[in-house]
Amino acid sequence: METLTMNLFTDIRALVLQAIEALQAEGILPEGLNTAPVTVEPPRDPLHGDMATNAAMVLAKPAKARPRDIAEALAAKIGADDRIVAAEVAGPGFLNLRLAPSVWQALPGAVLAQGTDFGRSDMGQGARINVEYVSANPTGPLHVGHTRGAVFGDALASLLDFAGYDVTREYYINDGGAQVDVLARSVYLRYLEALGHEVEFADGTYPGDYLIPVGEMLAARVGEQYVDQPEEVWLEEIRNFATDEMMKLIREDLKLLGVEMDHFFSEKSLYGTGKIEAAIESLDAKGLIYRGVLEPPKGKTPEDWEPREQTLFKSTEHGDDVDRPIKKSDGAWTYFAPDIAYHFDKVSRGFDQLIDVFGADHGGYVKRMKAAVSALSDGKTPLDIKLIQLVKLFKNGEPFKMSKRAGTFVTLRDVVEEVGPDVTRFVMLTRKNDASLDFDFAKAVEQSKENPVFYVQYAHARICSVMRKAVEQGIDISDAALARADLTALDHEAELGLMKKVAEWPRLVEIAAKGHEPHKVAIWLNELASELHGLWNRGHDEPGLRFLQDDAETSQRKIALARSVAVVISAGLGILGVTPAEEMR
């Protein structure tokens, strides 16, 4: 697969590595140095240059040389390249590089030639990744907490795809546990209600209005058939019917957000099919299953602890704090057993990497699940578990209570209907997944610099507005024409600054994908928008910086720069699942 990035940081790192090889050939540096830790990145302070390398610092010890001596030798080699106008040694041995304006001026043309594929990477090399997210119990509509997990998982999947991975988006339907029996009993009450019977929702049932239509559908389908019948007559059929209806509701909720899964996996399919037994046998064959009694835990006693002999998984051999029960003393599986089986199924499907997106309340679950996957795959399949912290709802800074048609919680649908899918998605990605998020409905829709969604969308809309005016003036603004424009006259610091920001995009994609951190895309888009708005505003006082000028050729080269920014904003918003705005209303 051809690298699409035009990643200038990768190109300059290659130049640094060539300089190291040249110094080795001359005997100034010894052979066999490990150059993997050598980086090229933006300096902390832009005044120090365009890029900085740590090469001298990381090579000094193995080369048995002073960092500054290596840095000076590297500077002499690197400075001879046409792309470099200055290579300056700083501090104990950092090397700061300034690039020729022509390097930056060539960038918009490359962006326009590649379109929204600019920044795509082959870093993933087609490795197969399974991203499991949402996976809410099929007992009701998705709530605001699920919304954040859905947006995060979906954006992460898109980011990994953009970085060259083969991604499967997966939803695990928790339809095998006691909660679906509670759902069935709750639907039964709504069914009786639909037939005119008085009902009472006891503790432990789901009282939400969302089950009223399900009860009505069931009544229309079976009539009086289940009235006054014992639970064993109707439980299984109503459970299946209710689960199917809830999954339809969940799919509709996800569609509102623009989330589409590649695969739905049913927990129920693990029971009575030998799949749980096969997973446990796989661990047993590795000597990791035994009969034993666990020590009582310190502090709060968890549900799965029994002071008697149980079947245990030796998870401590794979990094867990304690061994975990997989079968209770009465022979029933613990809740952990089907989860092991499900991940065994994922490993068996040949994924190179697994990612699970869980709510913050699953924090205690991380080590045991990682231990299980490590054991099942003989350490070959890494599992990353991303925990999603809570969302707090506000309006004008005050805690916000919305209509709770679900009975006890604010739904995904409530949020999307209030502010729309684009705003919902962007706001949910403005913080790292493991930090709590304040979602203020008033701020999310206000048109101000303080609102990151508006700020990025406004940058894109401004560029679209310039292009519409250019068309009215008869200027050819096709990407092909703009890509051919000569940008060497665009040498103002604000114009070059915008080009430099665009140049960071391919590197940012790889950093965000490597760390499984899609929020970095949202934050960076805000920085790019800031550069664009900054150049635009300077045009008020300096007419020469405006994107539309008196002659078509000058306008065309300036629009080429603006259009390259719009292309990158489109690509970034595409990863986040947000539609770029062409005009602000």
From TrEMBL:
* UniProt EC number: 6.1.1.19
Q: Which GO terms describe its molecular function?
A: arginine-tRNA ligase activity; ATP binding
Please give a single GO biological process term from the UniProt record.
arginyl-tRNA aminoacylation
The catalysed reaction is: tRNA(Arg) + L-arginine + ATP = L-arginyl-tRNA(Arg) + AMP + diphosphate
Per the record, what is one GO cellular component? cytoplasm
Record keywords, A-Z: Aminoacyl-tRNA synthetase, ATP-binding, Cytoplasm, Ligase, Nucleotide-binding, Protein biosynthesis
Q: Extract the Pfam families matched here.
A: Arg_tRNA_synt_N, DALR_1, tRNA-synt_1d
- Kindly list the places in or outside the cell where this protein is found, as annotated in its UniProt entry: Cytoplasm
Q: Which residues form the DALR anticodon binding domain?
A: 456-584
Say if the entry is tagged with keyword Zinc-finger: no
User: Where is each Arginyl tRNA synthetase N-terminal domain found?
Assistant: 10-99
Q: InterPro entries from the entry?
A: aa-tRNA-synth_I_CS (IPR001412), Arg-tRNA-ligase (IPR001278), Arg-tRNA-synth_N (IPR005148), Arg-tRNA-synth_N_sf (IPR036695), ArgRS_core (IPR035684), DALR_anticod-bd (IPR008909), Rossmann-like_a/b/a_fold (IPR014729), tRNAsynth_Ia_anticodon-bd (IPR009080)
Q: Where is this motif: 'HIGH' region?
A: 136-146
> How does this chain assemble?
Monomer.
Which HAMAP family did the record assign? Arg_tRNA_synth
The entry sums up its family as follows: Belongs to the class-I aminoacyl-tRNA synthetase family.
- The protein, known as: Arginine--tRNA ligase
Q: Which gene encodes it?
A: argS
